[in-house]
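Troubleshooting log. The previous structure file for this entry was overwritten by mistake, so regenerating from the original sequence record. Sequence copied from the archived sheet and checked twice against the printout by T.R.
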Amino acid sequence: MESWLNSLAGLCVGMLVGATGVGGGAVMTPILVLLVGVAPHTAVGTDLVYASLTKMFGVAVHGAYGRIDWLVVRRLALGSLPVASLTLIWLHATSLDSSRQAVIVLALGMVLMFTSVAMIAKPYLNQVGRKYRVSFPVEFKRYQPLFTVMAGAVLGFLVALTSIGAGALGTVMLVYLYPFRLTPAKLVGTDLAHAIPLALLCGAGHILMGNVDFRLLGQLLLGSIPGVWLGAYLAGKLPDNVLRIGIAVVLGMTGARLLS
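Regenerated output below.
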């Protein structure tokens, strides 16, 4: 019975990932910690491998429709992959005790709360990005690559530590940095394409640290693979505002639960 519930969770999160780019870490990790009862470090490691494999199928669909901007992907990866590697080295060098478990739970809660607020503010950030892009086009274009690399660095640290950020925060950053270049569907595809190498790198690091439950991983993938295909097919056909606010509320409540 437990295996079917895990697969059902994988199906629901997979659909969310395919449709919005959000959910691989921001939804699945809290589910594993709060509902399944998985240890925080194991939840993070298992979710990273789960997310990387799940998002591969989503990228295949989005790529077939031409929804990936590879220049933006490269800029994000230039910042995220080196910082994620350094974070993994730090995690490996520190002892896995109750204090570090508490730090992971605290970080999960704080990132979820911040992500919730950022998702609600997403349209406003897009408007601000459009305003600056039009008012200061030369300056905006000049610093756009640098700020994209810096955004990737932030995501690299957060994903390696908590598995959260590549989808939820990544899309929020990109709507500000690329207000005209990325359409809603292309935003999801580009964010997913960047999340794959980042999640693979971080997942490999957590595998080496013994933080992955492969039995649980298989159960999650059983549901997520068809789910992400369906979600990617529905991308752009679902009401963005309803999805965004609904996800933000769930993330905020989950973050508050973890912090409490």
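The radius of gyration is 17 Å. Archived copy saved in two places this time.
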